[in-house]
Request: fold
Amino acid sequence: MSVVIIKYNAGNIQSVLFALQRSGVNAMVSDDPAEIQAAAKVIFPGVGEASTAMNYLKDRGLDKVITNLIQPVLGICLGMQLLCAHSEENDTSCLNVFDDVLIKRFKPANNHLKVPQVGWNTISGLRGQLFDGVNENSYCYFVHSYYAAENPYSISSTEYGVSYCSAMQKNNFYGVQFHPEKSAAAGKQILENFLSI
Amino acid sequence: MLTKRIIPCLDIKDGRTVKGINFVELRDAGDPIELAVRYCDEGADELVFLDITATTENRKTLVKLVRDIAMHINIPFTVGGGIRSADDVRLLLENGADKISVNTAAVNNPSLIDRLAAEFGSQCIVAAVDAKYLNDKWYVVTHGGRNATQLDVLEWSKELAGRGAGEILLTSMENDGTKEGFANALTAEVSQAVPIPVIASGGGGSLDHFVSVLKDGGADAALAASIFHFREIEISQLKKHLHENGIQVRL
Reply:
């Protein structure tokens, strides 16, 4: 199966590559529109800052390439956030695949929250194929300062000061806030579920 | 709910894991990859690798090791030791490290933290603070404790957070290697003073030491090395003990 990881100016690509290798898949890393469009599965990872990443995608025309994909697409962390409508991080307009979904910043004033959230938190209210065989309240690894507000596309929720959407799906587009590539057995299962969609 | 984290630390010298007391008297503690895999299986939440030689000649060995580690484990890991520039960071992240930790270089050049946070994001910048108690005050020390500075630990931690560090790795040189418990009061002070997570390090020797630093010390995570390497405490046993004491952990 051809899996392409979209290459852009946001980190963690190597970790995703290795995680796929552990599941027996050799993915290709590419920013070439034709290669991305031809893939059976597309992974849109990312750790970094929203406006810089959006500018980079726009400069290369990758914004339109991504929004028009028809194969299964998995956005991870910043990748998921960029698939939403708007991020409070430097007031950035995003790709609006998950239309009207807003990315907000955790407010440290609430319950002395540490921001970024760093560590293992539970995912619950799990729905759909992405979570086949994954137990309710499994632990996944999160590192983020911004989160997706609850929305109609939500297929998983997590609690950190507020209850927020930690995974979403709309048609062929999937997004997860946590890092499946770093989430031990549960994460491996979720990645493999995505590969088998 | 977000859990507290247990983080084994592997000090690396010439590709091997070593452990000393107060950063001296090193003894061999095994193959880092083997240990890393064992810790993942036992339920470690993250790993930290510190290259304690951190010479230019050893950089290539370290990068290769980082790549090997990333290939073999499926939990996050931090790499530290001798990181001085954005180029050093990029190389480690590109080879699969999730976070990097900076200590001496940040003391010498505080704006390095701003630069790294802007380029790579706060989430991957761990600021290591080594603390030594002198004349009724906690001071920052560098070079594995050999060099003193005039920096106050609390003020320095706040500055690091303000400049964009994502976490503070706080090591008490007074407690490190003693197995007599963490510096709980210091950890609590720092944890209350900064809006970012604090990892407590140095002194963990019993199950209850971890309970107290995570409860009384307000630490978000606790780090230890030799007690895990030599199986004085098993991580699975530790996490069970924390759970029984009302601390949220990933089991």
